[in-house]
C-alpha cells in the first residue's frame, strides 16, 4: 500500500488545471451561434472523441485528485471520519440541488425538469469517490476501479435490452437509454434527445471510475516517493499505459462520451494524468508560475462560475429587445451587433464564446482580488 505524506500542501498546478478545464467548459458551452462551431469545439456525433469531449472527464479526474489533497490529513485519524463523511454528504447534496436548480431555471417546470445533469453527475462522483477514499486503501480502490470498468463493459455488451433484443450501443436502444426512460421517463431526461441522457443513470457508474482514476493519481502525488521528478515519471507512465489500453479497448468497446465507455475512461484518464504531470513538472517542480494566474482565478471558483454562467446565458436569451420592429433576445442582439458584421460565421461564433469567457474572467479576477471564494 502506498503511504501518503500528511502535509497540507496545495498544488498550484492542480488549481491551474482545474481553471483551464472550467474555462474550456464555459467556452464550448457558450458559442455565439450553435449552428457555426469549429469541429474541435463540438462533441463527437457518437463514437470517437474531440477535444471538447475531454473537458468533463478531465474535471471529474480533477475532483478525484482534489479529494486526496483535501482529505488526506484528516483521514489518518479515524476520529475525523464522521466529520469528513458529513462534509461529503453535505457538499454532494448541495451540488445535486444546484444542478436541479440549473435544470429548472427559468421556468421551474417540475413536470418536465431534467433530473440528470452535469452538476448532478459531479455530485454523485464526488460522493462515491470521497467515501471510498476514506474507507478503503489504495489497493482496494484500484480493484474497485478495475471491477467497475469490466462490469460496465459486460453489462453494456452482453445484457439484452428489454423490448429491443440483444445488447447494443445504439443511441436509443442501449441498456443505459432504456434504464433512463424506465427510471426518469422521457419527461425528465435531456430535452435535445428525449429518449436518452448523456448524464444518465447507468453511465454514471463508469464516470465514478473516472473520479477514482483521479484519486489514484492523487495518491501518487501525495506519496512519499523520493523526488518530485519520480512522481512526474509515474504520472506519465500510468497515464500512457491507460491511454494505450483505452485505444486497444476502443477496437471492441468504442470510445464514446455519451455512453462513458470503459475505453473512454482509460483514454481520457490517461490523457488527464499526462496533462497534470506536465503541469506539475512545469509549475510546481520547475517553478514557472507567472502564466498561471488567469486560470487559477477560474479554478478557485470553478463550480460558482459554471453555475452562474449558465444562469446568465439563459437570462440573456430571455430578455427581449425590439430591433427594426423585430423582437430578438439580448444575447442575439449583442452577437449580431458586435460580431457578425465583422467576422465570418464560424469566427464570429468563436469570438462570442471567447468574449463570454473573458467577461467572466474579469468578474472572477475581482472576486479573487477581494479573496471571495465561494465554497460549494
Automatic annotation (TrEMBL):
Which GO MF term does the entry hold, naming one?
Answer: acyltransferase activity
The keyword Membrane is assigned to this record:
yes
Q: Tell me the first and last residues of the signal peptide.
A: none
The residues that cross the membrane are 12-28, 54-72, 93-111, 117-134, 141-161, 200-221, 233-252, 264-283, 295-313, 348-368
Is-annotated flag, keyword Calcium? no
Q: Name one Pfam family in it.
A: HGSNAT_cat
Q: Which residues form the Heparan-alpha-glucosaminide N-acetyltransferase catalytic domain?
A: 10-159
The entry's keywords: Acyltransferase, Membrane, Transferase, Transmembrane, Transmembrane helix
Name used for this protein in its record: Acyltransferase family protein
